[in-house]
Every structure is written in C-alpha cells, then in structure tokens.
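About this split. The held-out portion is used to measure sequence recovery: a designer receives only the structure tokens and must propose an amino acid at every position. Recovery is the fraction of positions where the proposal matches the reference. Here is one held-out target exactly as it appears in the evaluation file.
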C-alpha cells in the first residue's frame, strides 16, 4: 500500500506563512515517495490551492460542515474547498470531538457529505488515556468506526487515522508495539466491515526520530503529523522515512 504523509497544521500559518512554507518545501519534495497531504486552516485554503495547483501534493480541510451552504454561522463549506482545489477533509479529529463537542453522529453526517461532494474523508479515531487504562482501546476505536461508517459503501475512498488522544501534542508517542497492536485491531475491524483497501495512518507526537521505527510496523500505512509538520525540514524528514 502506498504510504501517506499528512500534515495537520491546526490553527497555525497565515496565507503568507503558507506560501513561504511551500516556497521552501516544494523544491525539496520532488523525489518524495508516497502521497503527501496538507491540512491548512480554512483561512489559508486559497493560498494552498494557488501554490499547489498542478503539483503532485494534495491538500484538504481540517473540518467542514455537513451542509454545503445555509444559515450556519462560522462554519466552512465543502463546496468552497472543492472550488479551491482541496481534495480531502479531516473528520472527527479528537480536538473537534473534545473542544467543539463533535459527536459520532456528526462524524457520520460529515463522512457522507464529503463523499457526496466527491472528496475523500480522513476519519480520525482514538482513545483517551483513561479509556486506554480501562482496557477500552479497541472498543472505542470500533465504536467510532462503526458510527462514522454505517451506511457508507465499503468501496468508497477513505483514510483512517488512528490517533491515541494521550499522544497528541504531548510528546508521548505510542511505542511502536502499542501502535502496531492498535493498528492490527483496526485493520481486522475495517476488513470485517469490508473496508479492505482503507489505509490506516498513525498520529500522535510523530517526529523525525521516531517515524522510521513506527513506519516499519505492519498495518501502519503512514502518518498524520501535527507539531512536527509546521517546520519544512522536520516534515520532509518524516516524509523521507
Ligand atoms: P501532534 O498532533 O503530531 O502534534 O501530536 C497530531 C494531530 O493532532 O493530528
């Protein structure tokens, strides 16, 4: 399976900072193997769309609403994303679930909306520290997958990102063994649901110095990187791993 390296910029990078980043990143990225996808904040979509036009590097939204337009103050539209050249949308990132109260139900609505627009959802799942300590990791992952993917055709394009919440932005990366165990369970569950071609990315404190080891484990098909994707050479090193 082709490796995927995704960058979640969260609420970082203005349009100018986005252009500057790609000004340095693009010349260095010519020989990269695998697929590279950026998730800039919505205010930098247009800048990303302009600089990445005609490049073999993709980009998408960190969040879009499940209606293309209407009286939804403050939300982002998938139609706009599409018009600007975005191809992907993150759905159910743990920060959305926790800080913005996104429910399993919303992840389901968003997955369907994104697919209807002809875009590709990247569904984020993962357990909190408390859930892990209670031995509920598999149960949580399965619940989140099941909820978001019910009524979704298993041949739909889709990427899953497993991001244990306790490893996000904390510097506490899952050990390669912990990640491999969770990825095997998720792989088996996705296969069971019919999603046999769906890649599974790992996310949570991925850095240039832990990327290679994680990527050598079975069923880890790439990364979703937050903090370490903000700096050109650190993300490049991860993409080269
Ligand atoms: P991190 O974030 O790499 O900074 O831990 C990952 C994510 O939230 O997608």
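Reference sequence for scoring:
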């Amino acid at each position: 399976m082709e490796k995927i390296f995704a960058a979640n910029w969260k609420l970082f990078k203005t349009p100018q900072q986005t252009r500057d980043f790609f000004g340095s990143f693009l010349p260095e990225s010519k020989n990269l193997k695998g697929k590279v996808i950026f998730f800039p904040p919505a205010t930098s979509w247009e800048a990303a769309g302009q600089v990445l036009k005609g490049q073999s590097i993709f980009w998408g939204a960190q969040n879009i609403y499940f209606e293309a337009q209407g009286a939804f103050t403050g939300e982002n539209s998938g139609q706009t994303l599409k018009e600007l050249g975005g191809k992907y949308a993150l759905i159910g990132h743990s920060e959305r679930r926790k800080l913005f109260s996104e429910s399993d139900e919303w992840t389901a609505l968003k997955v369907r909306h994104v697919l209807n627009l002809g875009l590709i959802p990247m569904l984020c799942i993962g357990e909190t520290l408390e859930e892990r300590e209670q031995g509920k990791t598999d149960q949580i992952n399965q619940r989140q997958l099941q909820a978001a993917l019910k009524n979704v055709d298993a041949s739909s394009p889709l990427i899953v990102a497993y991001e244990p919440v306790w490893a996000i932005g904390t510097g506490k990366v899952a050990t390669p063994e912990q990640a491999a165990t969770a990825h095997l369970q998720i792989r088996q569950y996705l296969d069971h649901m019919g999603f046999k071609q769906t890649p599974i990315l790992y996310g949570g404190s991925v850095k240039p110095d832990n990327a290679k080891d994680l990527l050598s484990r079975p069923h880890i098909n790439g990364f979703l990187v937050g903090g370490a994707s903000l700096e050109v050479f650190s993300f490049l090193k991860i993409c080269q791993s």
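Annotator remark: The longest helix spans residues 176-193.
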